[in-house]
Please model this.
Amino acid sequence: MGVIVQKYGGTSIATPTLIKSVANRIVATRQAGHEVVVVVSAMGGHTDELVGLSREISPNPSPRELDMLMTAGERISMALLCMALIDRGFDAVSFTGSQAGIVTDAAHGKARILDIKATRIRASLESNKIAVVAGFQGVAPTSSDVTTLGRGGSDTTAVALAASLKADACEIYTDVDGIYTADPRRVATARKLSRVNYEEMLELAASGAKVLHVRAVEFARNYQVPVHVRSSFSQEQGTWVVQEDKSVEQAIIRGVAHDASEAKITLQRVPNRPSMAAKIFRALSDATINIDMIVQNVSSAGSTDVSFTVPESDLVQAESVISDVCREIDAPGYDVDPNIAKISIIGAGMKTHPGTAATMFEALGDKGINIEMISTSNIRISCIIASKDLDAALNAVHDQFALGTLGDTSLASGETLSEVSEGQLSRPSQDPASKKADKRGE
Ligand code: ASP
Ligand code: MG
Model:
């Protein structure tokens, strides 16, 4: 049988007891005849602790040293897990990202994987060993320095390794049991999905679903890696993220995602002349601030309002950029609203189905919820609303599209992944650690 890559998130290996039970699961996979490569995160909370330590030393730590520090968490968990596997009579060997041949660019804290030279991993599989790889790290050949891929990057390590080893599947073990039609903590009728296609999962992850790192999904799509998101606290099937099956009718709407972490900035009375938008958004981009939605109104009396959203964490910096820009372009000023939320519906089937946007807007209108901004892609419609309305909006839209009761239309006869049955947006499992909302999907 082929190779399976298994990635265990921080909550799945947060304690020695949990590490031992993960070892049992790995052993069971081996005993079922698979070759296993494991990718681990740091034990739950460790990466945050390391970040906290660095802040106590320096407000602006050296990026190289910060990466050196951050990679330590995964070294701890990989060594402990190997000890547990060896005690169970299995040959296991741990590898740092650099030892595993994960070659990245030199952008500390947000490095991108350029290549994987998995010779040592292949050699250990050939000699019947279980390879355990430290997640979210690599090495930059230009500097020979250790790098990290950014928070949550262990998913990307796992999927990239699975692509490079041509693994049969990449299993992402977490504290939620799959991808849901909406966040089950906010929508009681949310339903676990059996499968989601890559495009939908990319839009879900980019729209606020936190179960998978966006770059991991890009890798999975680019290299056609079947990804199985599932809970390490149960044996149940989770959600498969796979290629769209063209022979099966697509669900019109797969799920509703939300993101309450953005803020809205409105520049008032921007002069209506060429290159104003260019100036505003070049200045923000030079400050590496990511913009999400942009709305420019029809002009009246020679000027127009321009609104856009930014991550709340970038708000202070964005405001300082914008106050300079206002002076430069002669706009009288700007407004900031941090109390906004984005609600998005996603589904490959909406491409060919008219009226989807109208149905979503009606659901919000019927509840008296005002839409402040709208943006669309060919498989997504997003609305900015007041954050106080978020729960009501999620439930109204989820109900309007009957997402809690519909069958999973992507599951039809002739299904090839036959054990695949339905699953982001996340359901707490029995594990007490999962009660901490901020640790979910780690
Ligand atoms: N330990 C890293 C983090 O907490 C990477 C990961 O878990 O994916 O962000
Ligand atoms: Mg994660």
